[in-house]
Amino acid sequence: MPLSLWLSLAAICAMGAMSPGPSLALVLRHTLGGGRASGLVAAITHAMGVGFYALLTVWGLGAVIEHHPTAFRLITWAGAAYLAWLGIKALRAGAGGALQAQGQSVSLVIAARDGLIVALGNPKLILFFVALLSQFVTPEMTTLERSIIVLTAVVIDGGWYSLVALGLSHSRVLPWLQARAQWINRITGVLLLALAVRVLMG
Questions:
Q1: pTM
Q2: What ranges make up the beta strands (E) of the chain?
Q3: How many other β-carbons are positioned within 10 Å of the β-carbon of residue 177?
Q4: What are phi and psi of 128, to 5 degrees?
Q5: Is residue 56 within 8 Å of 36, Cβ to Cβ?
Q6: Distance (Å, rounded) from C-alpha 26 to C-alpha 161?
Q7: Tens place of pLDDT per residue across the chain (202 aa)
Q8: CA 27 – CA 168 distance, rounded (Å)
Q9: Domain count, the chain
Q10: In a 10 Å sphere around its CB, with 0-12 CB exposed, 13-18 middle and 19+ buried, how is residue 175 labelled?
Q11: Which domain holds residue 18?
């Protein structure tokens, strides 16, 4: 995989991981309620759920591209519409939303369960991956290249939420995010809309 293509993939994965939403609220809640270990466990199991969806998407899309080009176009268009909807929603979110998390005392097992369920139980996540990874997957890709795509998504997602958990354990990140929530939402919305246009333009 060319370095420039991987950098584009990494940037989009980072954009998705860093955008405010239910996943961020989950890590915030477990970190505030259970401390650093609880937040890290939630972050790691969430990344495992992301990796599962990324794996399914990477291997499934190759067959769709090769044998069902019309179905692939429909999936791509649906993904573009979903990304545009997410972008508009982010632009309209303002400073409120998922960043206002409340502390909750929980065990590590519950933190692990919640991290996995939030990732696997969110249908929006798989739609995001279909729209995202369809731009990077080709039928002739090697196993190594497909693995790089999956690992990139997992490492960036787990890395970001682990940093959030580590920072919150020192009570520094949460006020910073809350103070800038409106700008984070605006930047995320613009990037998602731009990606939707890119998908539609092929």
A1: 0.68
A2: none
A3: 18
A4: -65, -40
A5: no
A6: 10
A7: 788 888 888 988 888 888 766 678 778 777 777 778 888 999 999 999 999 888 888 887 556 666 777 876 776 787 678 778 877 877 886 655 544 444 444 588 888 988 888 887 665 676 677 777 767 877 778 889 889 999 999 999 999 999 988 987 776 766 776 677 677 678 777 877 887 787 777 6
A8: 9
A9: 1
A10: exposed
A11: 3-201
Cα angle for residues 43, 100, 123 (degrees, 5° grid): 55
Contact 48, 116 (CB under 8 A): yes
Residue 138 neighbours by CB under 8 Å, 6+ apart: 62, 65
Which H or E run contains 85?
A: helix 69-93
Tokens of 93: 């979110």
DSSP tag of 139: T
End-to-end Cα spacing for the chain: 19
One-letter amino acid identity for 49? Answer: G
Amino acid at 150: V
Which letter, b or e, does each residue of 6-41 get, where b requires 16 or more Cβ atoms within 10 Å of its Cβ?
A: eeebeebbebbbbbbbebbbbbbbbbbbbbeebbbb
Residue for token pair 């933190």: 111
What's the farthest any 2 CA atoms get from each other in the chain? Answer: 52
Tokens of residue 61, six digits: 């899309």
116, 45 contact by CB (below 8 A):
yes
